[in-house]
Amino acid sequence: MIDDAEARRIRNDFPILNQQVNGSSLVYLDSGATSQNPLCVLEAEQEFYEQRNAAVHRGAHMLAVSATDAFENARETVAGFINAGMDEVVWTSNATEAINLVAYAFSNASAGRGGDAASRFVLGPGDELVVTEMEHHANLIPWQELAFRTGATLRYIPVDDAGALRLDEAEQIIGPRTKVVAFTHASNVLGTINPVDTLVRLAREAGAAVVLDACQSVPHMAVDVKALDVDFAAFSGHKMLGPTGIGVLYGKAELLNAMPPFLTGGSMITTVTMEKADYLPSPQRFEAGTQRISQAVALAAAVDYLRETGMDRIHAWEAELGQRLVAGLEAIDGVRVLGPAAGAERIGLAAFDVDGVHAHDVGQFLDDKGIAVRVGHHCAQPLHRRLGLVATTRASTYLYNTTDDVDAFLDAVAGVRPFFGAN
């Protein structure tokens, strides 16, 4: 497992973390929103532009070949990281686009596109899509819209008062009418790691496709998409030490090759006439237009950095930091922590409510001390509403955080209510 000494060494690889904020050393606890970039990632993107910049899959000149090799080598690196085939990794702008890609491909199939191969994706009145009450909006609204476009019904698995999924109700909700089961691997609010095996089993029994939001899992733990047996998974580069503007859709090859495309245009076709077009197989059929080339190369550098550090070691360290966060917050009067209590499994983040003080005021108080956290509903309004809250403050850790970071944060939170006269 990583320890404080190694975390401090790792921190030195991240130039942005070595700065002062409001006269204090920066304590960055907002990696659940966007992680920082090690120098090797910044250099990988710069090196691409300095040495290889050209359009991929289009030119026969030396730079185009070099750019294409770098682009596809990046795909191979990311595919290996999650135990997928190269033809099962589609580049997107972010995880939100990846999930929308699947939802729109399903609605295109429902509109008659894709022929017999796509018939399994056709939806209509009487069909059901199932999500959970803890979903990020990016894994909720695309399915709401898909239901609207096709006449299917959207249902959700509720959470209990502690925020845990009601698996007893899931067994009743997922059934013969279910066509899609979409859920988060790890909650960006609760820190909960959901039982993928149970939900996949229920989906398989119903013959439904499984879509996994892996944004808070792939960056923080070893994820094997084959072992999980999900049909699709989405994650974002900027949450795993990579740049913004790059995301990944994993899909089983046989499903991707049966799906009609979402975006159309250049680089995703075989033959075009004035009347129709024929499309390339996956992944190119979903990568129309000029691609996120330098971002893919930089994401591969981030994956190499994570792999070299060791995902099991990262997960263990963040779990320790997460437990320290929760135990410390639970010990502060007037603080309510969402999600599993101290001692229960969670990823290294904690969202909390301070009695009598709005989350935005908490965040400003912490920022004045150089501590960066997230405030708001974290793109999960239905979950906050279910738990009786409008907004919370969230601290999220990564491999470059130390126990000193957590302790500085806890020290500051202990001073919130006295400062605002909420005692």
TrEMBL record:
Enzymatic reactions: (sulfur carrier)-H + L-cysteine = (sulfur carrier)-SH + L-alanine
Alphabetical UniProt keywords: Pyridoxal phosphate, Transferase
Enzyme Commission (EC) number: 2.8.1.7
Segments forming domain Aminotransferase class V: 27-409
InterPro entries in the record: Aminotrans_V_dom, Aminotrans_V_PyrdxlP_BS, Cys_dSase_SufS, PyrdxlP-dep_Trfase, PyrdxlP-dep_Trfase_major, PyrdxlP-dep_Trfase_small
Pfam families found in the cross-reference section: Aminotran_5 (PF00266)
Alphabetized SUPFAM superfamilies for the sequence: PLP-dependent transferases
First-tier enzyme category under EC: transferase
CDD domains, A to Z: SufS_like
Cofactor list: pyridoxal 5'-phosphate
Keyword Methyltransferase: no
Xref: PANTHER family: CYSTEINE DESULFURASE, CYSTEINE DESULFURASE 1, CHLOROPLASTIC
Summary of the function given for this chain in its UniProt record: Catalyzes the removal of elemental sulfur and selenium atoms from L-cysteine, L-cystine, L-selenocysteine, and L-selenocystine to produce L-alanine.
Protein family membership: Belongs to the class-V pyridoxal-phosphate-dependent aminotransferase family. Csd subfamily.
Entry protein name: Cysteine desulfurase
Naturally occurring in which organism (per UniProt): Arthrobacter sulfonylureivorans
